[in-house]
What we know:
Number of strands of chain B: 14
Strand content of chain A: under 5%
Strand order of the largest sheet of chain B: 1-10-9-4-8-7-6
Shape of chain A: globular
Largest sheet of chain A: none
Distance between the termini of chain B: 30 Å
Number of helices of chain A: 12
Order of helices and strands of chain B: EEEEHEHEHHHEHEHEEHEHEEHEH
Helix content of chain B: 25-40%
Structural class of chain A: mainly alpha
Largest sheet of chain B: 7 strands, mixed
Number of strands of chain A: 0
Largest interface: A-B, 46 and 60 residues
Radius of gyration of chain A: 23 Å
Structural class of chain B: alpha/beta
Oligomer: heterodimer
Number of helices of chain B: 11
Strand content of chain B: 25-35%
Shape of chain B: elongated
Radius of gyration of chain B: 23 Å
Amino acid sequence: MSSTSEIKEQPAANDVIQPRPRASSWSLWTRQTLAILRLEIKKNFLSRRAFLLYLIAGAPLVLLSLLALFPPPTDEFDNFSQLSQVYAAIYGGLILRTLVFFGCAWVFMNLFRGEVIDRSLHYYFLAPVRRAVLLVGKYLSGLIATIVLFSITTVGSMLILYFWLFPSESARYFAGGAGANQLLTYLGVTILACVGYGAVFLIVGLFFRNPIIPGLLLYGWEWLNFLLPPFLKKISVIHYLQSLVPVPMSEGPFAVLIEPTPAWISVPSLLIFTGVVLFLASRHIRRMEISYAGD
Amino acid sequence: MTPTTNTSSTQSPSAPASSPTATASTVPSVPVSFDKMIVFEDVSKFYGEILGVNRVNLQIAPGITSLVGPNGSGKTTLMNLMTGLLKPTQGRISVLGMSPDEPEAMFQKLGYCSQFDSFPRGATAREFIEFYLRVHGYTKQETADLTNAALERVSLVEAADRKVSAFSKGMRQRVRLAQSIAHNPSVLVLDEPLNGLDPMARAEIIRLFRSLADAGMYLIISSHILHEVDMMSDSVVLLHNGYVVAEGEVHGVRDEIEEHPIQISIRCDRPQTLAARLFEHEYTVEARIHNDRNGLFVKTRRPDDFYLLLNKIITEQNLQVESVAPVDDDLNAVYQYLITSDGGQT
């Protein structure tokens, strides 16, 4: 402290802004959620951790640009009618099962684990905010980050693939409505994937000090979903997402085939599942202690 | 508001946990509602099998209350329990009638300047304070006004728009302090708030604490610098190994501890001779020969003088001494800490 500086004494009580009078709960929670969102969105998009997310989300765009520039000598890339199958395979195998999965894992597991590692979670826990409100604010911030980036990935990769290889046919295809419908359905599946995987990884990040192993186990479970018996298939996020994609992807000769779950069941199921997971997370966070030792 | 504590008590940290003497309290002379106090009721915290604090009973009134004790004594655990960062294994905590499980109510009135020296990456001092005020629910204008007032109080206005990561330790300490007082809480919990501050800054911060306490706030401050505790505190809670060993008005506690005799075991030949010589001096309160007659227990109120005397007698009498060890080691450690270590600055 400089020698010229001076600590100011407590102002008279009537000079200071007193703690807020209690606004209605919903109004206060909304204001608090928005404040958390503002701070967290900044972190999700601009922190050093965001770099990996940009890499993950940007990878298919680069890959598909390369494929469009140097198409492999196979029928699928020479035939416009086959493109929907090509994109379905790229979307199902690469974007949905791998990139959205790991992107969500990175963002949502770090919502709380990252703060514990940075030793800054206590600032939130010392604010007059319900921990459930904090959880919702953080979850929404993760959703915004992943939905924005992976929506760009989904839309960008489809448009690159179609328009680079078959510009005129693609223009007709999308203007005619069929292509646009497919695009919007893929977009919807991506958003639902962020919603579902986001909730799963948020709770994994809350429960596990080292969430990498549970994350990999989940990845294995989701990837091997095509081998599972019908009952177990339905205990996964990917089953419901796959039921919604506009062009079903072939899962190979060893796949256990079952009827896709209809959209009117899949979508509410995913949303209910997300709600239950977030409820459990909010119960857990109420009792959560902060001890940075060993993190 | 002036401090209301007027009692003090000491206890052995090795006392059985269930002992009624395990309760120490700064109970005001005039009965005060629990809604106007910070209350620990039979609070224990274990980290697995490791003791954090055990059977703590405290009632803290307005003013400055210092938690004093060596590292690992349980000061930070008590503060983290009080602010809900830790949950008690057993017992109940109430801050002005509110539970730490109700953060939305409690942190309107409580600010905590913890020891965690960490900040959101890339934040300036102003942004850091504003971030969390917005989370309180303040409007943009209120946030700006409160932030400026807090920065002014800790003399950080000029550095407000610089990144915290570039600050010195003392400046970071002041940023955390500003953040904890920005919403004008009535209870302020400060974990080693003077760490990293130069002497002038310490004096100024202590003056700030005094002015806050005089305005009726509750300040709970942890420290291991006794002369600073002496200077600013109204009451003191002395902790050792997770136990409250003494508590009350600061000078009363010091006096009582200094008067509390400690027991030393000496294994030697001719314990009767030693006892006779020791009783020639006022430092010795009591001497008791061991059952095997190869040593004695001695109680003294002035261990430093006693040890000097013991050396002298051993040399003069040519005694064969096998060992000299304090029996009441915990209390002795605290005692030593209080009156002779650099913590005591004496």
